[in-house]
Fold this protein.
Amino acid sequence: MNNPQSTGRLVGSLVLTQILGGFLVNFVLTAPLFGPPGFLISASAHSGRIALSALVGIVLGMLSVVIAIAVHSVVGDRARSLTLFLFALATVSLAATVVEQMNVISMLSLSKAYAAASAAEQADFQGLRLVVAAARNSSHYIGLAVAGTMLLVFYVTLFRTKLIPGALAVFGVAASFVQIIAVVMPLFGKSVVFFLLAPLGVCQLVLGFWLLAKGFRGIQSEGSRVGA
């Protein structure tokens, strides 16, 4: 069994890295894809930036797998089913992230082709623009739903094993559930209710700093009771 304090601090640092990286990818690096005049015109001029966003996005997805492995290394003997389910969801989440980033690269490739086309040919790209954008958006929201489910299981695991304060774990479960509801709305033709995403963001931020300061807890005392 790994040291719970040091492993918890590692998980905390990874959670905070994901928060920072997620902000960088979604609001900085991919800004040319979603701001005016649209990705078809602007993406090709920022190809390096958008390619970097895809790589960073995949790395952030890999960190979820590392977090799942870290949790399993600490409490896998006491919550084997939960930690293995968490690992499985983290792997599926990484796969969904890879698909999303492939669609981002497709947007970039279409923009480059558009920039190289003649004025007469550019009109033919409008239909493709809608298809490629829809593919990226669908994979994005599906990926967020999978990630939300993964975090739901993550917080259930933390609650069941008492690795963090119970109130924080319960808040994480509730926030993850609300996030899942918010991000699946576009799949049913509705708009995302963005304020429903805030609780999970706050919870993840609090969790990251709490783990960075305290690490995981509750392992040694329970282990002593089992051995008694």
